[in-house]
Design brief:
With 481 residues, the protein is α/β, with parallel strands linked by helices. Helix 1 packs across helix 7 and helix 5 runs parallel beside helix 6. The chain binds nicotinamide-adenine-dinucleotide.
Length: 481
């Protein structure tokens, strides 16, 4: 453990200087909002991986031996350290990821990191007496797994890293993080601060592309993989885990449906529906990605949503007025604009947006509401992961439930209604890991979160999430002994 190397005057450039690759090496990282070069990210090799694995393996037993109390204390200290650099870290995140500082964006994300660390530190993991029947007593406990590989995406890069790392550390594991190659610098900067509160080797960072990620998850020393990203990459990780039998938590892609029942109040729900869909400019795993609205209130809700959309400022990441930003990268920009073009060709009506905002920069795409589409149209069936929302009219609730369930994904879903019993009845029939009533996408450190079908398996958060970072162990004794 080294000393606190940040000060009250630490800037985002100081954070960047900690992690950028030496001159002439690494991969260039550009700011999505401006196209400016942010810095060069290191590209690590298999030698670096072996070095990190050796250090982690050596450090893990000592870390585990510290016990839950001391490990929780370290998580709280890390949270304090992140709070102390919250503003420069948020600015670095905004510049690299593209999300604005304000709204549910960069400052919000950095704040969520420290609150998640504290919540994970405060979790109580009790031993469970599973049988005590006069003949035998069987007690279930959870031990550390060993080495965890944490591989993450570019949309909420800091927060998702903390979701993976905090419970791993709390359970006494060592962790090697492989951040997305699209947003490595802010994650590496955060990890460098976190590592200063931990024994050397317990928290490692491996930077590079998917090949680097693939060699990490397949490493024989890795006992658990925490993966958040696309379903396609998730399948490859399942295959790789055949060799090392690593346990897996897979948080994969989604195409969350929202079902608006005929008794919902369009004006009252419009703002929450909007943020359910467009949080982080739509680049959120459990965002509302297809909205099914009863025909009796369809037009009224579309108008109310359009009004909200027109009032939300989109702009550059460091502009204090922005609450919506650019799409993070050109690959995702092409997905979003391609799906909207396809929707136009299939007869969809563009209510707002529909053309790139080239005046703002090459990666800005406006909030795009599209009506007149049906199941089977690409914008409905495929994950857009960006600022476009198909709004599909339905006449029969059973039909809307069937539509929600027809795709091979099931991360989140929502039901919107003024009648709690009716909403609950519909929620019970939707196939998704999380179903929200009259909101969409809200998460809580005590509430388990995870997908079904192609959205993956395993749970994060709360005591269930903690258990997923341990190995179960049962000790049975005779009752008389
Ligand atoms: P991605 O799968 O392309 O990449 C994610 C990470 O996996 C990156 O770090 C990448 O380098 C790495 N990777 C890719 N192939 C790999 C392999 N074979 N082995 C090991 N590592 C590999 O995903 P992305 O484009 O960064 O993220 C967007 C996707 O993530 C969307 O589908 C979104 O829905 C999903 N997502 C899901 C959640 C969730 O909690 N379920 C959260 C955020 C994002």
């Amino acid at each position: 453990m080294s000393a606190d190397t940040t000060t009250a005057t630490t800037t985002e450039d100081d954070l960047l200087a900690r992690v950028v690759a030496p001159e002439g090496t690494g991969e260039e990282i550009f700011e999505p909002a401006t196209g400016d070069l942010l810095g060069r990210a290191p590209v690590h090799t298999t030698d670096d991986l072996e070095r990190l694995v050796a250090a982690a393996t050596e450090a893990q037993a000592g870390w585990a031996a510290l016990g839950h109390g001391e490990r929780s204390a370290r998580l709280n200290r890390i949270a304090d350290r992140l709070d102390a650099v919250a503003e420069p870290l948020a600015r670095l995140l905004a510049r690299e990821q593209g999300k604005p500082l304000n709204g549910p964006n960069a400052r919000f994300e950095v704040g969520a990191c420290s609150s998640w660390l504290r919540a994970t530190a405060a979790l109580e993991l009790q031993e469970e007496v599973v049988v005590d029947d006069g003949q035998q007593v069987s007690v279930l406990t959870y031990r550390p797994i060993g080495l965890v590989a944490a591989v993450g995406p570019w949309n909420w890069p800091l927060m998702i890293t903390v979701w993976q790392v905090a419970p791993s550390l709390r359970m006494g594991n060592a962790v090697i993080v492989k951040p997305s190659e699209k947003t490595p610098l802010s994650v590496l900067a955060m990890l460098s601060i976190m590592a200063e509160e931990l024994p050397e080797g317990v928290l490692g960072a491996l930077s590079g592309g998917r090949e680097v990620g693939a060699s990490l998850v397949a490493h024989p020393a890795v006992r658990k993989v925490m993966f958040t990203g696309s379903t396609a990459a998730g399948r490859k990780i399942v295959e790789a885990s055949g060799a090392n039998l690593a346990r897996l938590t897979l948080e994969l892609g989604g195409n969350d449906a929202g079902i608006v029942l005929p008794d919902a109040d369009p004006k009252a729900i419009a703002q929450d529906v909007f943020w359910g869909a467009f949080i982080n400019t739509g680049q959120t795993c459990a965002a509302l990605k297809r909205l099914y609205v009863h025909e009796s209130i369809h037009d009224e809700l579309v108008e109310a949503l359009a009004e909200v959309a027109r009032a939300m400022p989109m702009g550059r990441s460091l502009d204090e007025d922005s609450v919506l930003g650019p799409v993070q990268n050109s690959m995702q920009f092409d997905v979003v604009s391609g799906l909207v073009e396809d929707a136009k060709q299939r007869g969809g009506t563009i209510v707002t947006g529909g053309e790139p905002l080239t005046d703002l920069g090459p990666l800005f795409y406006p909030v795009t509401l599209v009506t007149g589409l049906h199941d089977g149209d690409r914008l409905v069936d495929e994950e857009q992961f960006g600022p476009a929302l198909p709004i599909v009219k339905y006449s029969d609730v059973d039909e809307a439930v069937a539509s929600a369930n027809r795709l091979d994904v099931g991360l989140g879903a929502s039901v919107w209604s003024s009648d709690p019993a009716r909403a609950q009845e519909v929620a019970d029939r939707v196939e998704a890991g999380s179903v929200w009533i009259n909101s969409h996408g809200g998460i809580h450190p005590m509430v388990p979160f995870g997908g079904v079908k192609g959205s993956g398996y395993g749970l994060e958060f709360g005591v269930e999430g903690l258990k997923a970072l341990g190995v179960p162990k049962v000790v049975t004794r005779r009752s008389a002994e």
